[in-house]
From TrEMBL, chain A:
Protein name: Multiple sugar transport system permease protein
Transmembrane segment boundaries: 12-34, 80-99, 111-132, 144-166, 187-210, 246-267
Record flagged with keyword Membrane: yes
Organism of derivation: Aquibacillus albus
Signal peptide: none
Annotated compartments: Cell membrane
Upper classification of the organism: Bacteria, Bacillati, Bacillota, Bacilli, Bacillales
UniProtKB/TrEMBL annotation, chain B:
Protein name listed in UniProt: Multiple sugar transport system substrate-binding protein
Family annotation (InterPro entries): Bact_solute-bd_prot1, SBP
Signal sequence extent: 1-18
Keywords carried by this UniProt record: Signal, Sugar transport, Transport
Protein's organism: Aquibacillus albus
Gene3D superfamilies (alphabetical): Periplasmic binding protein-like II
Organism superkingdom: Bacteria
Start and end residues of each stretch annotated as Disordered: 23-56
TrEMBL record, chain C:
InterPro entries: ABC_transporter_permease, MetI-like, MetI-like_sf
UniProt keyword annotations, A-Z: Cell membrane, Membrane, Sugar transport, Transmembrane, Transmembrane helix, Transport
Polar residues composition bias: residue spans: 8-18
SUPFAM superfamilies: MetI-like
Residue ranges of the TM segments: 36-62, 100-121, 133-151, 182-205, 226-245, 251-275, 287-308
Domain ABC transmembrane type-1, chain residue ranges per copy: 96-307
Protein name, UniProt field: Multiple sugar transport system permease protein
UniProt topology in membrane: Multi-pass membrane protein
Subcellular location: Cell membrane
Pfam families in UniProt: BPD_transp_1
Organism: Aquibacillus albus
Similarity remark: Belongs to the binding-protein-dependent transport system permease family.
Region (Disordered): 1-23
Amino acid sequence: MITRKKRVRNKVIQHVSLIALTAVMLYPLIWMLGSSFKESSQVFVDAHRIFPETWNFSNYSDGWKGFAGITFGTFYKNTFIIVTISTIGAILSSALIAYGFARIKFRFKKFWFVVMMLTMMLPFEIIMIPQYVMFNWFGWIDTYLPLILPTFFGVPFFIFLIMQFIRTIPTELDQAARIDGCNTITIFTRIIAPLVVPAMMTAAIFSFYWRWDDFMAPLLYLQSPDKYPVSLALKMFSDPEAVTNWGAMFAMTTLSLLPIMIIFFIFQRYIVEGISTSGLKG
Amino acid sequence: MKKYLLLMLSVITILLIAACSGGSDEEEASGGNGGENEQSSEETGGSDDGGGDDADQEQITLRMSWWGSQSRHDMTNEIIALYEEQNPHIKIQTEFTGFDGYFEKMAAQAAGNNLPDIMQQNFGEYVNLYASQDLLTDLSPFVEDGTIDLDGVSDTIVDAGKVGGTLVGIPTGTNALVATYDSAAFEDAGIDAPTHDWTWEDYERIAREYHEETGKYGARLNEPGNMFEYYLREKGYALFNEDGTGLGYDDDQLLVDYLSMTKGLIDDGVMPGYDVIQLIKGLEDELIVRGETPLDLTNWSNQVGALENAAGTPIEMVVLPGENNDRGMFLKPSMLWSIGKNSEHKEEAAKFINFFTNTVEVFEIIGSDRGVPIKPEVREALEPNLSDIDQKVYDYVNYVSENSSPADTNFPPSASEVFKALEDTDELVMYGELTPEEGAEQFRMNAERILAK
Amino acid sequence: MGLREPEVQNQMQKNKNLPPTKKFNRKRVGREFENGMGYMFISPFIIGTVMLTLFPIVYSLYLSFTNFNLVGEADWIGLSNYQEMFTSDPMFKQALEVTFLYAGAGVPLRLVFALLIALALNKVVEAAGLYRTFLYLPSIVGGSVGVAIMWRQLFGNDGALNSVLASMGLPTHSWLGDPDTAIWTLVVLYIWQFGSSMLIFLAGLRNIPKTYYEASSVDGAHKIQQFFKITLPLLTPVILFNLVMQTIQGFMAFTPSFIITAGGPMNSTLLYILYMYRNAFQFFDMGYASALAWFMLLIIAVFTALIFKSSDRWVHYDDN
């Protein structure tokens, strides 16, 4: 009886504190949601109030209209193309490379690993000009190639991430599989890959979000506004020297968070479901 | 386990060696660019003998870039549609973005020899940088042969588009610095509002009186970039010397006086310090909009409309203070239209700029979004249908154009670093870390170091 | 490693009892170099590096020895940029100090916070997906203008934090206006966006086989014992990952100070990469900016190398 009572009390405490934490964490986002219903000129005058006095839905229709006849429908379509293809590319190639680094012994492995780490240590702003010149030679400007193709050669962050998860899998498993007739390739496809699904899903969530949010690369490599993704379009509401349509900007920013939320909500389940398979290995 | 460190170092060394032999990379780069250039001319279907007489028959695609916000994108596209309708052989490919990243993209395009045919440039160090590297077309032949009609445009405006004597940009419109004030607030406090002939003493007095009367701030903090440059001009100096290799004033007392004035007002609570200013989230959040001060000297004439809109009360405009404010005030091109040196269709690009500069319908669509039109005929034609606020801005810019001297265009490429050093100094003095004297000395030292680079 | 050790030892003992040929066989497949196979798996990475990343990286290194002004010709000036950094540029030192403070405080705090929340969430059964989603949300607003405005709203003189303090009778403070506290508002922002680290920890926690816990509770181990003997050791590969990546990202952060404080007040929030960015695109000194970037790469590389070096002592892998 006592333990049951205690358990219920613990649960309540647990949830109350989590809800409180969530509320604090979300306060700024709720403020933005509220602002997206305020009139543009009132956004700051009314800043202390979370929700507007009068609800103004026109920000959403104004924002959706986009720019010069190109609506956010187009921007969303473009983003989905870029994000979907590059995420698939990034995850598949990174998993392969990670397996190579984590499980196979080969000459100069450390060298290549160090090279991989080093490529993450230079800011994009520094390499973007030579990169532009290079993609310009290839004739890739104003296409999605500079945004999509590089991900098919692996993304160092994901390679390292998946590597670390592979390395938690006991090698006894590989050895057993080898005795059962698996080779290096089939060990990857049958044993390792299924076991690192949680890591791959984590990577997919990140990849989706990063590509979604990426501003500088599309800005550089795309020229035609009808090819722009959402991230680029969101920055086109504001002009620091003149008038900014704040309301529309907040409305579209809020809207742009929705797909990421939905994707996250769907994919995080696969992270959780990973247990059933990884439970096997104990 | 020094292995990791060693490995890191060896990789860096290898890259270093590769880089040292990399001198040739650059040549390769420019060689490759040439190839790209040919390719792009094929894509756009341009003729090899360029523009000229047969341009009328063939289809020509011009690339055009600008930055801006939603309304500017919409309006500019409307104008382009109008032009394409009148000139069926021209197709204009637009490349518009927000302000964020616009110049990063332009730098990359310059490196790739891929600049647009027509581009919106920013007055000051930006256009100077591109002009100094010979990336922009000299527009004076087009002005001389009448392709771009600038008849009647005042010389001070045309000159603002020149860098080192070469005309590299046609102003899209003009703006001027302005002292904005909330007339109702002054009336309520029983204080006379400023007039065009006010002095620095009047400025201090008005701000102090208002503060004493109401307890609110008497004026917004001045940020030094524009304000000190104006202050120097008003006293007969310039921020940079003629060839942009040093400061344009020798007596540090000028900066000491300027800093002391601001510091005194902050110390007495008449003006807010940086801690308040830093929190302003945008034009619509300015102190004058929120009614926390009636006087703000930091705006440009094109911003007054937005200020008044957000404030919901009339905002009036006068020129900045000083006995010689006609010497200090200047008209600034809000932006410039430039043509890339790599353009295959310079003449057609010039024709479009001419259209944008001289067509009344253009400004009926876009209003004063890119500043007050530079052509007197256009201004006159628009005058009858102006909104109240636009009328105020037109009147103000008209007044300034008659009571001002040409803008300084001799900004060296490192000007923004000098401006940053000035801001840093100003902040240090206003936070009380340095005295005005120390500040003035430190600024000179930093500025000279930067300009000597 | 608590429970695992006996298991592993068992395994090893078994190995000893195996017939020699089979043992040899196992050693062969486990240890031998498989160059062809290895290079086949990592070939996408090598091709991508050689074709796409090597040129820009090497070129940026070359630029660091030039006076490249962003759009013109680049002239070789030897080590001048590096010399300037260490001898005549006061901002360089300032930016370094700010960045070390920011990364030094932000990275450990974010990691601890992310780990604690992940542990808490790992226990929750009801509405776990919702909590996860909401707590991850702050990380996805990223560098949007919205964040900049919200942060100024939160820490402003009339902002939410001061309102709370005032209502509790505590003194208020100009958080963003005071050079001593402004950087801490950015550290708070860095911690606030702990979602991605949390997610990785969660995935790591989920990867720990439940059977270990079941076995240990049969043995009567306490929860705290379980944490230190099972959870923490098995999580170390993921902790290493987060530590390395957060160190890299912490040193390279710049959007927050770019959009919220613009480096001020009095350059107290001038993060290194922001200073580099300014040199590149506002002061038109790409050569100097490249030198700054390469110096930062060196610093990050040293830190990363030290972390990897120490990892031999505290990270437990199952693969050797």
